[in-house]
Recover the amino acids of this structure.
């Protein structure tokens, strides 16, 4: 692994993690804690005709069994930034998908609960399940998010095209599968509720549980200081969390539920199946004149999920005539949810594969085609970007990779018996910004404490926020403690959408600036203070001291000011709000990237090996080169996984997921992952004070298309559906 930027700070939480002292949700225990196990539906559609819990209730250690017949009426959770909450569990006898929770069993031990769960007898009245995107009986939701786009005159655009490329691309169901099994512990004390949960968004869990159990939000505390990964699986508050809280109330004891791996496939979302049909028209010179994109994805009954898969066709290139449309098809499937770059992960594969096909048809270098159609301004609004170094991504990435060594002729590059292919893809990731709050305190001993109810799902939030606070306050990082993962802390949005570092970073920065302002207020009228009367813009901070800008000797330490005023600490709050394009006169940019991939294919055995990946990324200001690089590496592995391995296989007859274990669901191992080069380019973004853009999802997107494009270069095979498997490569 090589990075051309300076090394970043080591993770501040690393010592805790490697010594096993970082406590994940299922590491907690309470006196008298009981354990829960779920019973799941074994049909995909129909009704529960009978449910017999007597054997389970009589089993050793069992405290209670809750079914739809005994569960109370529960209000559905609230509307959120990510759409409505999933349907509440156990509300009637209907079965909407295979694996739906139909009962929860609580016992003294986890083993007893799991055993008793096998004793619950359920009889179903089975209905014909809707499992196919093309099933004519399925309800179709058109323009589900109001994000269908149309600009220019698409028909007129195609009329001027010299070359028209048309293709249909599909991506399968994939399952998020964070390594940490998602866990919930619920503890009632009177009407107060404490919940440990594998969530990416503690405030959402708090708000939802308060509403569902009709208690004030102040009576609910949600804790998630460490979460074993998420990839989007922890964005929504899922039915099993509600069931655990309900079970704790019914049992009158704290209750812990740890999902099994098979349950993870049906309980906490997945990336839904998608099909995108795209038509692109271009002039002989390679100017895009029209794009028409139609996206379809699956969604569960009575739920909603944000997957505008066609939208990237409208946002990524300068093309005057574009139409994008999305539809969702309601099927008897578990609720989908955001998974590692929702919508972009699917749509980009189609768009970037299609562009590669177009370049091939035009006899043009695919890099040249992309440079030619680079969106110099935001294609949707026409506004200048707050930052955009995509051109530099292409140039630096191509240079680093050695793109110029590519012989464009199909199958012309070899190494021994291996066919060699070079492929590239670009990504223009949308900016996602939401309000966030943080609180910063400076203590008499000169240390700072900064906190917000965010989560660190492995991305490095603890670390980069510590750095940011240290920089904003002029303190050594060792003097700063940043804490998160507690809903009693100031409001934070979800760790998702590549948006948390920006939202939280700006809130932390603003809290620290306001804290400095509080110090200046204290000394405003103090004749002896060198800082008297100074405004925020006139001072700088370093080494625990405030001083006049340009006059380091004219200042004093935080600790001296606190001591003089007899204060133990001083605190301030910061709130960041999303930057507004209209006010800025700029389109708020997300991250950009160019991915260059080399593959090797053994034509006799159909073996595909990814030999190299170079990712050139514009993430704005990079706060920590080490954790940001790790983010891109992790995302790239996710992209390799999407391209070559992951495929959640549903039995078309029963709706049962056939490969819901890590023995059957393929993910890459180290031997599948080559050296991954990550290069950051670009400038601090102009839309926010800290200038950073999220670097989570930009790492994954584009990798699958770049691999497919490289496979085409090596073999001439154009593979339009993922994953790419051996049988498709036998030549
Ligand atoms: Mo991400 S799929 O927004 O956790």
């Amino acid at each position: 692994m090589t990075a051309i930027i300076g090394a970043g700070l080591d993770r501040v939480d690393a010592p805790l993690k490697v010594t096993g002292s970082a406590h994940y949700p299922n590491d907690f225990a309470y006196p008298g804690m009981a354990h829960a196990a779920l019973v799941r539906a074994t049909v995909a559609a129909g009704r529960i005709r009978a449910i017999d819990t007597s054997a389970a209730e009589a089993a050793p250690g069992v405290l209670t069994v809750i079914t739809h017949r005994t569960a109370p009426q529960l209000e559905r959770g609230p509307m959120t930034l990510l759409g409505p909450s999933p349907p509440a569990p156990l509300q009637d006898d209907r079965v909407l998908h295979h694996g739906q929770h139909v009962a929860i069993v609580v016992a003294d031990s986890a083993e007893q609960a799991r055993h008793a769960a096998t004793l619950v007898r359920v009889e179903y009245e089975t209905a014909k399940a809707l499992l196919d995107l093309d099933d004519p009986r399925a309800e179709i939701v058109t323009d589900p998010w109001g994000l269908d786009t149309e600009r220019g005159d698409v028909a007129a655009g195609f009329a001027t095209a010299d070359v028209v490329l048309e293709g249909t691309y599909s991506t399968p169901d994939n399952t998020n599968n964070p390594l940490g099994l998602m866990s919930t512990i619920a503890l009632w004390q009177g009407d107060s509720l404490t919940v440990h949960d594998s969530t990416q968004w503690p405030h959402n869990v708090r708000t939802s549980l308060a509403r569902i159990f009709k208690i004030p939000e102040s009576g609910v505390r949600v804790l998630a200081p460490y979460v074993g990964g998420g990839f989007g699986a922890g964005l929504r508050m899922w039915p099993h969390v509600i069931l655990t809280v309900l079970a704790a109330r019914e049992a009158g004891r704290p209750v812990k539920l740890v999902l099994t791996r098979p349950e993870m496939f049906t309980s906490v979302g997945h990336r839904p199946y998608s099909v995108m049909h795209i038509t692109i028209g271009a002039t002989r010179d390679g100017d895009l004149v029209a794009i028409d994109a139609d996206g379809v994805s699956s969604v569960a009954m009575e739920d909603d999920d944000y997957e505008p898969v066609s939208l990237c066709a409208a946002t990524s290139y300068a093309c005057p005539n574009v139409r994008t449309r999305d539809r969702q098809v309601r099927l008897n499937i578990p609720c989908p949810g955001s998974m590692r770059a929702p919508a972009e992960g699917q749509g980009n594969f189609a768009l970037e594969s299609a562009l590669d096909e177009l370049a091939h048809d035009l006899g043009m270098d695919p890099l040249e085609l992309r440079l030619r159609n680079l969106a110099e301004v935001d294609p949707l609004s026409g506004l200048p970007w707050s930052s955009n170094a995509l051109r530099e991504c292409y140039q630096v990435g191509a240079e680093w990779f050695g793109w110029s060594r590519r012989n464009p002729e199909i199958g012309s590059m070899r190494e021994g018996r291996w066919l060699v292919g070079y492929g590239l893809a670009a990504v223009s990731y949308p900016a996602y910004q939401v309000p966030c709050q943080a609180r910063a305190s400076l203590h008499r001993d000169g240390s700072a404490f900064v906190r917000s109810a965010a989560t660190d799902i492995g991305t490095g939030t603890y670390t980069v926020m510590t750095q940011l606070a240290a920089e904003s306050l002029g303190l050594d990082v060792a003097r700063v403690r940043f804490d998160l993962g507690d809903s009693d802390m100031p409001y934070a949005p979800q760790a998702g959408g590549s948006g948390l570092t920006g939202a939280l970073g700006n809130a932390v920065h603003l809290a620290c600036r306001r804290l400095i302002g509080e110090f200046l207020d204290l000394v405003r009228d103090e004749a002896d203070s060198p800082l008297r009367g100074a405004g925020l813009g006139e001072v700088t901070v370093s080494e625990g001291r405030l001083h006049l800008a340009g006059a380091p000797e004219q200042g004093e330490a935080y600790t001296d000011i606190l001591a003089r005023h007899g204060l133990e600490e001083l605190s301030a709050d910061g709130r960041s709000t999303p930057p507004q394009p209209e006010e800025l006169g700029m389109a708020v940019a997300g991250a950009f990237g160019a991915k260059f991939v080399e593959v090797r294919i053994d034509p006799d055995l159909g073996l595909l090996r990814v030999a190299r990946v170079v990712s050139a990324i514009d993430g704005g200001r990079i706060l920590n080169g080490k954790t940001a690089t790790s983010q891109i590496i992790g995302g790239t592995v996710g992209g390799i996984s999407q391209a070559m391995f992951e495929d959640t296989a549903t039995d078309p007859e029963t709706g049962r997921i056939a490969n819901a274990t890590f023995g059957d669901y393929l993910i890459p191992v180290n031997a599948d992952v080559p050296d991954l080069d990550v290069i950051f380019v670009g400038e601090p973004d102009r839309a926010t004070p800290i200038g950073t853009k999220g670097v989570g999802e930009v790492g994954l997107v584009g990798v699958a298309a770049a691999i497919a494009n490289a496979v085409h270069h090596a073999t001439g095979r154009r593979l339009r559906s993922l994953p790419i498997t051996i049988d498709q490569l036998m030549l």
Notes: Confidence is low (pLDDT under 50) at residues 1-7. The chain is about 25% helix and 25% strand. The two ends are 33 Å apart (CA to CA). The CA atoms of residues 471 and 477 lie 8 Å apart.
